[in-house]
Amino acid sequence: GPGFDLARVRADFPILRQEVRGRPLVYLDSAATGQKPQAVLDAITRYYTHDNANVHRGVHILSERATQAFEDARETVRRFIHAKDVREVIFVRGTTEAINLVAATYGRKHVGPGDEVLISAMEHHSNIVPWQMVCDAAGAKLRVIPVDESGALRMDTVDALLTEKTRLLAITHVSNALGSVNPIKELVAKAHARNIPVLVDGAQSVTHFPVDVQDLGCDFYAFSGHKLFGPTGIGVLYGKLAMLESLPPYQGGGDMILSVTMEKTVYNRVPHRFEAGTPDMAGAVGLAAAIRYLESVGMQNVSQHDQWLLAYATQALQSVPGLKLIGTAPHKTGVLSFTLEDVHPHDVGTILDQEGICIRTGHHCAQPLMQRFGVAATARASLALYNTPEDVDALVKGLNKVREVFA
Ligand code: PMP
């Protein structure tokens, strides 16, 4: 079973109550973005209705409240990922900006000519392109850990790929396109044995199971609020304090300084050094509300539901003739990527949409991974804590309809 009252959790997400195209909405695209519980919507409204002001500057009561709300949100994030120190939590726009921040600071400082950055074949474009840019600028080389036929990381290749030239291992915790879960702890141990720091793309992991950055031991961890059932425009970069303190600033501007003269600027302390300009206060408040919501359900329960529904969906999809699952790694989360014989994924998505079923089709911002499996695109159904076996049944019914249309 799901480990919590699924009907009650589902009722907390108002968007799911609607009919689309004359049918109850079936939302199976949470890997793209998550829906928002009422608690998040309320927290954002409350912030703008009662507390809104700019942070860290005013002497007045509203500025004090806004600053308090923003810094409380930072503490909520710290607790959620089990960071040691609240200063290790930097607010950014999302996973993409978090990775670009590390590329612009750590990458610029530490990656030089002839060096290497190691990523994997299952990365989202946002954990490929910033490193290509760093390598191009530095004259360094991007190296890639391959994946096997099931979509699991080829752990047997890692030792040889971590060399004395490797400056960083940047790798996803969970593949957005396949759901594969990577053994981060083991990878960190291998990298740290060679003094190589590790950045983890956590965009698809924090939504599915408990994450403890101290236990993982990684140096950086990045994720987006909007996938975690919070608002868009807010995300988090976790970095170990000593690492963050050793890095040059990212963007220049207000709030990231202690003093400025025309000759010289003294940069602010961590984390403010990396947060130039007015931050997304309401976004941080909304993200904190999403985290509190998830804590109330319990991330262990969220994980149990994910594995339960994934098993159900995997079996149900296998009953559809001509359907081929891509991504069958032994350790995976609720992502079902597939192709349907003789039907273009885009047509699968379009016909399902007519049935009120939302899935994603395309390359999922992971074109090299698609190439690895010899496809240009897949159809992807992705699960979240509000999805039910009925959602999966509707998908299977919809896919059988697709087959009829193309028969
Ligand atoms: N990494 C992974 C694994 C993702 O799934 C995504 C979002 N699809 C990103 C990075 C980028 O996240 P965002 O667009 O929120 O910055």
Automatic annotation (TrEMBL):
Keyword annotations: Pyridoxal phosphate, Transferase
Keyword Transferase on entry: yes
Swiss-Prot/TrEMBL GO biological process terms: cysteine metabolic process
PROSITE patterns (alphabetical): AA_TRANSFER_CLASS_5
Pfam families: Aminotran_5
Gene3D superfamilies: Aspartate Aminotransferase, domain 1 (3.90.1150.10), Type I PLP-dependent aspartate aminotransferase-like (Major domain) (3.40.640.10)
Domain Aminotransferase class V: 26-395
Top enzyme category: transferase
EC number, UniProt record: 2.8.1.7
Catalytic reactions of this protein: (sulfur carrier)-H + L-cysteine = (sulfur carrier)-SH + L-alanine
Co-factor requirement: pyridoxal 5'-phosphate
Record carries keyword Transferase: yes
GO molecular function, one term: pyridoxal phosphate binding
Functional summary from the UniProt entry: Catalyzes the removal of elemental sulfur and selenium atoms from L-cysteine, L-cystine, L-selenocysteine, and L-selenocystine to produce L-alanine.
Name of this chain's protein: Cysteine desulfurase
Organism: Corallococcus interemptor
